[in-house]
Amino acid sequence: MFELPSRDSSAKPDYGARVGMAFQGPRPDSASPVAAAASAPALLCGLVAADALMVVGTGLAAESIATRLLRAAPADAALFAGVFNVAVGPLAVLSLMCFYSAGCYRNLRPKTMRRTIGSHAGPLFGAWTAAFLVLVLMLGVTGDLRRLDTAAAGTLWLWYGIGLFGLTALRGLVLRLARDWNLAGGLRQRTLLVGTNDLAFEWLDRLQRAEGAGYQVIGAVSTAADRPPSVAAPPLATARMAGVPVLGGVAGLVEQVRKNRIDLVVVALPWSAEAEITDILERLRVLAVDVRLLPHRLIARTAGLSVDATAGIPLLGVIHHPLAGWRGVLKRSEDLLVGGAALAALAPVLLLAAAAIKLESPGPVLFRQKRFGFNNEEFEIWKFRTMHTDRGDQSGAQRTVRNDPRVTRVGRFLRRTSIDELPQLFNVLRGDMSIVGPRPHPVAMKAGDVLYHEAVENYACRHRVRPGITGWAQVNGLRGEIDNLHTAARRVEHDLYYVDNWSLGLDAEIMVRTALLLFWDRNAY
Fold first, then answer.
1. Do 140 and 105 share a structural domain?
2. Residue 162: what are its φ and ψ, rounded to 5°?
3. CA 1 from chain center: how many Å?
4. Residues 44 and 173 placed together within one structural domain of the fold
5. What's the number of domains the chain is made of?
6. For residues 182 and 188, is the Cβ–Cβ distance under 8 A?
7. How far is residue 68's CA from residue 157's CA, in Å, rounded to a whole number?
8. Burial level of 258, CB count in 10 A (0-12/13-18/19+)?
């Protein structure tokens, strides 16, 4: 009798510990037919159609609101109606193109709603704004925009606002329905696992503990590479592995794929079994099915894998520059444009702040401090001085706490409103920092009683992009004092999420949320 695999990682791998013999549940041959699962493409097509209808519907809603509630003159309504008839088609097409480019049609099998909707909100905002601005540019070129007076032009921008709200609400509703559908199995790929070894069992075990995973494992297929030559194969018709039935050997692989309407085959064999993997791939090549190789554990722990071909030879990419090529150009252009505009607009505020600091207490206006920056290199950050000169901590080892006696009265106001951070705009223009990115920490900063960069795993990975004046962690309630390792780890987790998921839309969302937080962020002190 074979027993179920043990989860004790110290146990010696053994074929008998991988496949369990049990007469639990119906045998695969007698299982009742399962209705074909609805595919993700059906949901995608529905979402695309709903987005197009929302663009049209919100335009009509804007016209109705302006005419009835805002009491726009009939002439203004007629002007907007004429522009609407010209613009609605191009805007619908532009919007769908921008949504696709921004990734709004990816990740339709959500695991957690808050993170998934959050990952869609930024790209959606950026894509809709871009599409609308292109439309306004087109109307300006064709002369249609010049025909609109103030009221009719206001209705056009009302369309933008209502459209943004409607599209965001629609996305939240669709993702919620998709999550429920996914948990019920409707969006899961019917999967067949090739292999009954430790690697296969570990994958199954993790899959079963991951709520909302996009796979429905129908069964497993045993291979000769799963057991030593001295161990005889068990009667596979009654074998189970981690609750999944073993449906036979490789000889019946093609039949099982056809009979069970398999969408995906996962091959969980050691890459040293080259001959058997080649044989399996040759068998599956004649079927309309996706095939994936489960990688070695070392590679499996690496995020962001990719495959490039050089001279016809594939290369497996395991670490990537997050802002390479045009992404880096876009990011730097954003920093220069936003940073320059912010400096010009906020120059009076900077002058007033400098004067207030100089009048209240002796010492320099600016505070300079060494911090970790891009590529883990140190740079000198600029801030308005908010502490008494004789009580400040140049190293950053002493944390600033709420009601810190070292902070001056003017400094308390500057910290509360984040005006003390504004000189960092010069760091942005110099190229030391970005407008948005992981916050730079002092080199001697501690989490608890341990240096921050030594206490938290993967801390240095956040320095793969330039540090920012504001960041994803700060707008998610992780600003202020870091007094324990748990808070430190959560902040780094949010920073790494930003590094791995950067987009212009995400930057726009962070900047908007930062502006709103200036008025009620309790963690600013």
1. yes
2. -65, -40
3. 46
4. yes
5. 3
6. yes
7. 17
8. exposed
Say what the pLDDT of residue 71 is: 63
Whether residue 220 is contained in a domain is answered as yes
212 and 259 within one domain: yes
Tell me the DSSP string of 482-501.
--SHHHHHHHHHHHHHHHHT
Parent domain of 104: 40-183
CA-wise closest residue to 465 among 366, 288, 330: 330
Kindly state whether residue 8 falls inside one of the protein's structural domains.
no
**228 in the same domain as 356:** no
**CATH, residue 223:** 3.40.50.720
Average pLDDT, the chain: 76
Same domain, 312 and 336: no
Are 204 and 276 contained in the same domain?
yes
Residues 364 and 449 in one domain: yes
* Per-residue model confidence (pLDDT) at position 187: 59
Q: Convert the pLDDT of each residue in 14-54 to its tens digit.
A: 433 333 333 233 333 333 323 333 345 666 777 888 889 99
Residue 483, CA distances (Å) to 11, 278, 398, 452 in order: 39, 54, 11, 11
On whether the CB atoms of residues 265 and 292 are closer than 8 A, the answer is yes
Decide: 241 and 201 in contact? Cβ < 8 Å: yes
Q: Is 239 helix (H, G, I), strand (E, B) or coil?
A: strand
pLDDT attached to residue 229: 45
Q: Token pair of 177, please?
A: 């329905």
